[in-house]
């Protein structure tokens, strides 16, 4: 009996405990299931985080590439001269570390490399306006208005331009997976004197630039690492100008090829180029004699040293028209020493540049290198340019410039062309969208052309004063920011002797003689 009771008690206890055990087993199974689901979700989250990190790395590489591409055109945005817009470009940025580390065996040919950035850019320059005299009639104007203008004597452009000039720049830039860069640029340009809306019959539309650059080639090393090869038709990257005078300090251009940024030391680098030109002015081609220009351009800190040799076979034997020299040379040399300052001559914040140029023979056209085929083999030219930009305080800003040149035996043995221009532009900020611009210019010239092109020996001075209320969207004190819309009034006068210089120039023409001339107008100017 006792045994039966114990058995029944054991069965009762088992019956009471068994449901709890079964329930515990069920709960444990559910927990394990949920843990498995949580682990799966965590694995998916880790995968998504890994993918996001990979995309972030690619994005950083693209941003670095785009920044490097942007640096290649910064400069001047540097401001272009009126007839040029070539933009200095910086050396491409270093390649991303992940690309540097790629094994050489995995580096494919340039054309097969995967692109990590690919961008199209559109840049431009334009100016357009109308000008009249105090009788509301047509007038004479232009930065090279004076007799000295024939040999590069600019007098200042503010309130002194009546044309429409447009440059359109299209660029395609690519950065490849092996670190190399490519750049293609084409520039279209047109200039017009007509005020009409349809001017196709008198259009000067042409392609001023069309070239390709290859940069940071991975097989280049040592001094050639991060250099840039180029070929085509272009303005040299390192040209520079005095924008408010509309005068290049030096302008090297044509069709050819070269290499930029050969680095000899941390702050010493050189450019080498070969340009070909046909003689004529900078835009046109008017004979078959070809001029070849070999140039070495070296930068050391703020200093620039430029040396060019020129050769135009048979230029001294060509048949000359009445407007050409009968003693043209067939070779020459051109040199320049320049200082590019990061302050206003060390006196104040701002910027300043100074250049001394010399040319002999075909190199005696020291501004537009290789562009004048009339120069004699004995021609000698010296040119000095200095200019700067600074803030004066109390919303006033100053940009002075001095340009001087002497050229002897230029077109005929014994001739002598001397001139000097002193110019200053002052800006007065009124509010964030309006300012007043003032410009004054004085030019003295002593010209002895010895009868070349029936020019007469003259000497004397020229004066110009301009007042121009100006509208901008912002950045009022910046001399080199645009767009601007200006209303202007200019007064000009010059010595009577200058009216005799030529029968086909502005001075001495009907209704435009010494004694004082007023010009009025409105103009826009922009670049981007």
UniProtKB/TrEMBL annotation:
Residues 82-108 have a biased composition (Low complexity). This is Sucrose porin. GO terms for molecular function: carbohydrate transmembrane transporter activity; porin activity. Keywords: Cell outer membrane, Coiled coil, Ion transport, Membrane, Porin, Signal, Transmembrane, Transmembrane beta strand, Transport. It is a multi-pass membrane protein. It is found in: Cell outer membrane. Pfam families: LamB, Sugarporin_N. The keyword Methyltransferase does not apply. One of its GO terms (cellular component) is pore complex. Its main location: membrane. It comes from Duffyella gerundensis. The gene is scrY. Residues 1-24 form the signal peptide. The lineage of its organism: Bacteria, Pseudomonadati, Pseudomonadota, Gammaproteobacteria, Enterobacterales. Belongs to the porin LamB (TC 1.B.3) family. The keyword Protease does not apply. SUPFAM superfamilies: Porins.
């Amino acid at each position: 009996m006792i045994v039966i009771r114990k058995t029944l008690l054991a069965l009762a206890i088992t019956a009471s405990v068994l449901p709890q055990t079964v329930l515990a087993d069920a709960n444990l199974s559910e927990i394990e299931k949920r843990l498995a689901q949580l682990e799966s979700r965590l694995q998916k989250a880790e995968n998504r985080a890994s993918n996001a990190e990979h995309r972030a790395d690619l994005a950083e590489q693209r941003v670095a590439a785009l920044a490097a591409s942007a640096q290649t055109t910064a400069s001047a945005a540097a401001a272009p001269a009126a007839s040029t817009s070539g933009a200095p470009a910086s050396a491409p940025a270093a390649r991303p570390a992940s690309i540097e580390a790629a094994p050489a065996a995995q580096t494919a040919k340039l054309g097969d490399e995967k692109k990590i950035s690919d961008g199209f850019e559109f840049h431009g320059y334009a100016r357009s306006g109308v000008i009249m005299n105090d009788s509301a009639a047509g007038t004479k104007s232009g930065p090279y208005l004076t007799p000295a203008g024939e040999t590069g004597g600019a007098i200042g452009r503010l309130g002194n331009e009546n044309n429409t000039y447009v440059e359109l720049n299209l660029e395609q830039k690519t950065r490849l997976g092996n670190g190399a860069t490519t750049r293609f640029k084409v520039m279209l340009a047109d200039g017009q004197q007509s005020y009409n809306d349809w001017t196709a019959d008198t259009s000067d539309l042409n392609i001023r630039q069309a070239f390709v650059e290859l940069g940071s080639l991975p097989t280049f090393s040592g001094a050639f690492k991060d250099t840039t090869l180029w070929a085509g038709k272009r303005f040299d990257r390192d040209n520079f100008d005095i924008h408010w005078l509309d005068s290049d300090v030096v302008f090297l251009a044509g069709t050819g090829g070269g290499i930029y940024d050969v680095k000899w030391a941390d702050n010493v680098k050189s450019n080498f180029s070969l340009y070909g030109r046909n003689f004529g002015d900078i835009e046109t081609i008017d004979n078959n004699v070809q001029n070849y220009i070999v140039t070495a351009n070296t930068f050391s800190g703020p200093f620039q040293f430029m040396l060019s040799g020129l050769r135009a076979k048979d230029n001294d034997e060509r048949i000359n028209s009445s407007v050409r020299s009968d003693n043209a040379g067939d070779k020459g040399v051109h040199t320049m020493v320049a200082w590019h300052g990061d302050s206003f001559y060390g006196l104040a914040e701002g910027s300043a540049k100074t250049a001394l140029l010399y040319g002999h023979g075909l190199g005696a056209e020291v501004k537009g290198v290789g562009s004048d085929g009339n120069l004699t083999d004995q021609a000698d030219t010296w040119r000095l340019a200095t200019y700067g930009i600074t803030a004066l305080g109390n919303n006033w800003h100053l940009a002075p410039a001095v340009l001087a040149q002497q050229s002897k035996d230029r077109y005929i043995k014994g001739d002598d062309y001397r001139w000097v221009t002193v110019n200053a532009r002052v800006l007065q900020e009124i509010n964030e969208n309006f300012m007043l611009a003032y410009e004054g210019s004085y030019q003295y010239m002593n010209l002895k052309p010895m009868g070349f092109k029936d020019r007469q020996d003259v000497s004397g001075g020229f004066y110009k004063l301009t007042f121009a209320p100006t509208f901008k969207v912002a950045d009022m004190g910046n001399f080199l920011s645009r767009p601007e819309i200006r209303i202007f009034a200019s007064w000009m006068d010059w010595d009577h002797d200058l009216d005799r210089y030529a029968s086909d120039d502005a001075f001495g023409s009907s209704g435009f003689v010494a004694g004082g001339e007023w010009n009025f107008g409105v103009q826009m100017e922009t670049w981007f």
